[in-house]
Amino acid sequence: MRICVIVPSYNPDEKLISTVKGLAEEGFDDILVINDGSDEAHNQPFVEVGKLPGVTLVCHEVNKGKGRAMKTAFQYCIENRKDIDGVVTVDGDGQHRPGDVRACCNEMIAKADQNCVVLGCRDFSKPDVPPRSRMGNNITKGVFRFACGIRISDTQTGLRAIPAALLPFMTEVSGERYEYETQMLLEMNRKGIPFSEVTIDTVYIEENASSHFHPFRDSFKIYAVILKFIMNSLLSFVIDIVLFTILEFIIGEKLPHWAMILIATAGARVVSSLYNYTMNRSKVFESEVSVKSSLPRYYVLCLGQMLVSYGLVNALSWVLKTGNILTSVIKVLVDVTLFLLSFQIQRQWVFADKKNK
Fold first, then answer.
1. Same domain? 135 vs 16
2. CB within 8 A of 144, min separation 6: which ones?
3. What domain range is 248 assigned to?
4. Are residues 101 and 162 in the same domain?
5. What is the pTM of this model?
6. pLDDT tens, 201-246?
7. Domain boundary among 193, 215, 237
8. Terminal CA-to-CA distance of the chain, rounded, Å?
9. 20 to 30 A from 108, CA-CA: which of 52, 216, 253, 326?
């Protein structure tokens, strides 16, 4: 195999040295270590690994984040490693066994015709996994599955084997720090780039004390990437509710109850749907599907959702004999449920590019 091993590192200890030596002993002879602006107190590990055969050291003058370090390495390989089969990213804190790194590379080579990214995934069900890692992965895994339809065992894995043909694409993925690894998975899904998983040993040294991943700060950055997928729908939902309530008060005493709900629902939905479609296509799903294809599907969904909303709100408000305010409360509950269904239908049908699936 012609593989370049990429090891991004920031303020490392002696585990960086043992990691690089272990990779060399496994037979990897092209190891690219990125010093991501580490301070003087942590410079010695880089001096040591820089002396090892087959190691190339690239330095950032200041800390720019793991995502930028990875993209620096990818660009370096594009310019200086034109004959490689691919790269594999490895954390420098000893969490990835050299044999597991080799297994991921073998899987990538075996699926070379598919341009498949291989992820080394840990088993989070084991008792020695730190609680913060188990909880963070389970939550993110659930969000990934709901918001993006991505079924992945280890959302935070740093062990990734990437074919050389995909490196230009990877340099264009947004994100500078830990959120980059999440954004990479989202962009792969959007472009229809396949991935496979290889089960690896779950290694946590000193309860993962050397990790620079901060569960609150960096989780927010990661979830912020995913939250943009639902934020626009929530804004559209607010627009819809506000307009419905305004129309309800304006025409509530002038028309029969059923007619008032129908007109208020339709009027609010016309405005909110135009906003929602435009923003969903361009900003949320970043869909490349044409307006000609997606707009009719969107309004089929919109009409169906509006009719179901009208039917349920009308029926429940009639049965419960509610007034205007309680009717709006019922509509909120109904539309929250329909929103969850609508989001999935938009992701899987309205804005899905079937050519990339």
1. yes
2. 150, 151, 152, 155, 185, 226
3. 226-356
4. yes
5. 0.74
6. 887 665 554 455 555 555 565 566 567 777 887 888 899 999 999 9
7. 215
8. 29
9. 52
